[in-house]
Amino acid sequence: MAGLGETLRRKRLLIVTGKGGAGKSTIAAALGLAAAGLGLHTIVAELSGQSRIARSLGRRGAGMHEVELAPRLMSISIDPREALREYLRLQLGALGTALMASRTVGYLTAATPGLGELVTIGKIWELARRERRTGRAQGYDLVIVDGPSSGQCLALLRSPATFAGIARAGPVAGQARAIARMLAASEVTGVLIAALAEELAVSETIMLCEQLERSPGMAIDGVLANRVYPRRFDDEDAHELARALDSTPDLPCRTALRAALSQHVRREAQEQQLARLSAATKGHGALELPLLPGRPPNRAALETLGERLVEGGR
Ligand SMILES: Nc1ncnc2c1ncn2[C@@H]1O[C@H](COP(=O)(O)OP(=O)(O)OP(=O)(O)O)[C@@H](O)[C@H]1O
Ligand SMILES: [Mg+2]
Question: Which domain holds residue 92?
């Protein structure tokens, strides 16, 4: 599959979602490094107050403060309560500051379904605007969001349209509509889906693709099959390996042969799932991302993953 180099250059907002544990944060970090390497002023946004990406690149997260991870690469961690505080301060000035200091903010986010999502996506929108009200004044070329898992991400993406429908008039409705417009503008916003070549993960990915396709304007820019084993042997090689295993009594040799055969079997199982994925997600195809060394993968491994994401290939 073609790489994402063009997508990184063209879009202003990319949201990485997918099944829990499929590699969303790892892919968002690798994309951030790759985009900055292409010369784009980039910010990676983590949600729900997480700062794993900043830590994986050797920096301490600073919440809603934008911190530098590498040249041209910044990070932010968006917490819904902090995002609401910032919104109130910007909208209401002194009154907002007074509200911020009270416990109202906590009650408000807890008691209003969808408000946490709305202020989170509102902050993401603010980061992606050319004219910023906070932080880096000129705005960023690209905002990469380490998004929540599939279902929660759909709720996040739909929250502005839902609020605009409920509020109808007034400043909140107006802003919610502006956010919904940006999310639906496929030349600006895109979604990347992290998947694993496993049965359940593939089923979840197919469902998510269908749901996103039903959401007006929501563009899927890539399905990324993560942690794929390399194809080292063909069937003939595997046959030879099995024969050698039958005939050698040497223990270290048998261990190595077993490891090689087991990797071949896992790769074959992954290929079946990759075929399912590409049949179901027709237009999109899946970009295969390799299993990286290191637990967790270090910066060099993330840079390698970033190159793969930009250049593509099978
Ligand atoms: N290509 C890869 N090669 C090796 N390890 C990987 C790869 N991608 C992710 N991992 C590891 O797999 C685990 C899950 O990855 P990650 O945290 O990026 O997933 P996630 O989708 O963000 O998870 P969550 O849903 O919990 O946020 C981590 O330990 C990560 O270091
Ligand atoms: Mg994550």
Answer: 5-232+283-311
